[in-house]
């Protein structure tokens, strides 16, 4: 699998089993990327080039109340700059080949590159369901105290994971 920025890839047959995540890739991802609203990277099969996975991320921030619930209060006066990994999915036919892991590591490495140039303290993921949250949990993400499908990992921990 080759991971590259979405750019005219054929994604018409992409099926991860979650209609919302299929539709996003097929109809929204390119448009939103053009607008600068989110960036999408796809995993393309090395042999036939078909899209077998993708992730989309964007700049984000945690407001003070969210920081308090995620990190357990503190005396912060400013919101926390973040990267949001909003979507990540792998084709049903391609599951179990570590494509999900490769896409996640690529997303984390990209976030570290961003954080080298722009302040970012944390990466947040919005999981589509409990299964997805369990997938992120394997890599050390922590659930928000008030939202079991929202998880985070400090950039410090991500740096030591991917560098
Ligand atoms: C979650 C998903 C991305 C995993 O993709 P995948 O390519 O099959 O996963 P990988 O082969 O990279 O698995 C890596 C590890 O995670 C584990 N894993 C995979 N899916 C998991 C899940 N739902 N819960 C817990 N662990 C999971 C694998 O068993 C493997 O563990 P191992 O190191 O013990 O072998 C994929 O199942 C998917 O697209 N699901 C539907 C959409 C979704 O849930 N997206 C997530 C965020 S919105």
Automatic annotation (TrEMBL):
Pfam families: Acetyltransf_7
Keyword terms, alphabetized: Acyltransferase, Repressor, Toxin-antitoxin system, Transferase
PROSITE patterns in the cross-refs: GNAT
EC numbers, comma separated: 2.3.1.-
Domain N-acetyltransferase: 1-158
Reaction(s) catalysed by this chain's protein: glycyl-tRNA(Gly) + acetyl-CoA = N-acetylglycyl-tRNA(Gly) + CoA + H(+)
Coiled-coil features, chain-numbered ranges: none
InterPro entries for the chain: Acyl_CoA_acyltransferase, GNAT_dom
GO molecular function, one term: acyltransferase activity, transferring groups other than amino-acyl groups
Keyword flag Transcription regulation: no
Protein name: GNAT family N-acetyltransferase
Species of the source: Microcella daejeonensis
Lineage, uppermost ranks: Bacteria, Bacillati, Actinomycetota, Actinomycetes, Micrococcales
